[in-house]
Amino acid sequence: MQILKQDINRRILDVARQEFSHRGFTKASMRDIT
Does the keyword DNA-binding apply (predicted)? Predict the structure, then answer.
């Protein structure tokens, strides 16, 4: 099954929003987002 690029983009943005709201912008980690 192929994963759509749009789905991957949406998941990354969702996780990034959670990370930024939990840790704040300056302490957010790209490692945790990806």
Answer: yes
For the segment 5-14, the average pLDDT, to the nearest whole number, is 93
Alpha helices in 1-34 (DSSP H): 5-23, 30-33
Predicted local distance difference test score (pLDDT) of residue 1: 65
> Exposed/middle/buried for 29, CB within 10 Å: 0-12, 13-18, 19+?
exposed
Q: 29 Cβ partners below 8 Å, 6+ apart?
A: 19, 23
pLDDT at 33: 80
Question: Whole-structure pTM over 0.70, yes or no?
Answer: no
Distance between CA atoms of 28 and 1, rounded to whole angstroms?
A: 32
